[in-house]
Amino acid sequence: MEFFTHLRNYLLYLIKAKTKYTIHPPFVYDFVTKVLKSKSYKGVTESIEGLRHQLLRDARKIEYIDLGAGKTRGKTIQLAVSKIAKNSAKSRKYARLLFNIVNHYKPKSIIELGSSLGISTMYLANANPDASVFTIEGCPAIAEIAMENAKNARIENIKQFTGNFDNILEKVLAECSNPELIFFDGNHSKEATLRYFEQCLPYIKNATIFIFDDIHWSHGMTEAWNNIIAHSSVTTSIDMYQIGIVIFRKELSKQHFIIKY
Question: Are 120 and 48 in contact (CB under 8 A)?
Fold first, then answer.
């Protein structure tokens, strides 16, 4: 049943999705032509992908603590690093998108909720070496591997925090002060997503970008996404099915776009 629901939702997305030829607002047209189509990651991210391949072959088993919305939520299980890399690490396609966004808009302060093994973290950090990337991972064993990967990739602008988002996010927000980009990629439940969104709102400034992962992963996540884009502080939102982007720019009128990616 869940498979058919996802299939139906994806087909509706394809029907509604726009391309650069049907988009007119300058900011969104610029996003489609200069961010989605960018190849700025070329020659920069090969070392990260090399680490990904190593992780996909890593047979080590670690104590995995699931603090998210998965079937093993709240449990500690033995899990192979290779399985985590396969199921949890951001795909190359969307990791490149994160890189392009940071490379184009040049945020100086970035927060990531959900490091996993550090693939997406390294893409964010590599896209703007002048930025400070604050990343939170709930599982200590995974956080340790993520920092090991960053060290191997010689990426030094990452600061790792370990623990439950509910306990740590406020500390990270205070230390980051004025985050210019926040990537929500941890607890994929409606309640948690809306809670973290509300918690981050007091720290935004004009031109802050929020990126939400898996906005159509479940009915609850779709509801959370719809609540977020309806919020009075959100001006422009972009739905690319797997991820959603909201932009806080007072000079823009409130508009919602579904864009093919």
Answer: no
Write the pLDDT tens digit of every residue in 196-232: 999 999 999 888 999 999 999 888 999 999 999 999 9
81/165 Cα distance (integer angstroms): 22
The Cα–Cα gap between 18 and 39 comes to 21
C-alpha to C-alpha distance for 132 and 199, rounded to whole angstroms: 20
Asked whether 227 and 218 are in contact (CB, 8 A), the reply is no
pLDDT of the residue at 253: 81
Give start and end residues of each alpha helix (H) in the chain.
2-16, 26-31, 46-56, 81-87, 92-105, 119-127, 140-152, 165-176, 190-200, 219-229
Task: Determine contact, residues 250/235, Cβ cutoff 8 Å.
Answer: yes
- The pTM is what? 0.90
Dihedral pair phi/psi, residue 207, rounded to 5°: 85, 5
Each residue's pLDDT tens digit, 129-144: 999 999 999 999 999 9
3-class secondary-structure state, position 138: coil
Quote the CA–CA distance of 113 and 116 in Å, as a whole number.
9
